[in-house]
Amino acid sequence: MYAPVPFIHELADDVAGKPQPLPWFAPGVIRDPDLAARLANAHRLLEAGTDALAAEAAMLDALSALLVRYSQTQPEPTRVAPHDARVAVMKERLTGDLLEAVTLAQVAEAAGLSPFHAARLFTRATGLPPHAWRNQVRLQRALAPLRAGVPVTEVAAASGFTDQSHFTRHFRRMFGVPPGRWQGL
Predict the structure, then answer these.
(1) Domains of the chain, first to last
(2) Nearest to residue 53, comparing CAs of 109, 3, 2, 124?
(3) Which has the closest alpha carbon to 45: 56, 36, 35?
(4) CB contact set of 45 (below 8 Å; sequence gap of 6+)
(5) Across the strands, what pairs with 71?
(6) Closest C-alpha to 22, from 64, 65, 61, 73
(7) CA dist., res. 56 & res. 63, Å (int)
(8) What gap in Å lies between CA 54 and CA 66, rounded to an integer?
(9) What does the pLDDT look like over 39-83, one tens digit per residue?
(10) Which residues share a beta bridge with 25?
(11) Residues 6+ apart with CB under 8 A from 91
(12) pTM
């Protein structure tokens, strides 16, 4: 993977909350299973191309962990107030049109933050990263149409999921049963 130097430098500034010298990494191999898992997850999400918000957040998480753990300039993360009006702006952006593909950069821009700070603030305030929170909202809104007998395929599409299997996977994770079975309960 190649991350452009200006991007990494800007991310280091965002993590620290102030301008930083250019991060430098010692030569050699970094053996960090957690970091490797974060990077692999980000790559899987990017390759899948189904959820740009989740992919961007995962990549920022992995690269900021790399910076904090291994850069020679190790920026100290800025403390962000968890109760902030910007969280409401981000929630509004995330729920405005659940069918629209939304990126972390768009959510951050709406709140006047960098993507790193937006993801961090949102996660601290809600307990969930933006993509997971948005999926939870989609699933909650899907309950009424399912209860009314609308076919699962239609509910999945109307809820903003890419396909029925994507919807079913998230539904089962949240409610413990697939949506069709839940409908029959």
Answers:
(1) 1-78 (no CATH), 132-184 (1.10.10.60)
(2) 109
(3) 56
(4) 51, 54, 55, 58, 59
(5) 25
(6) 73
(7) 11
(8) 18
(9) 999 999 999 988 999 999 999 999 999 999 998 865 555 555 556
(10) 71
(11) 126, 133
(12) 0.65
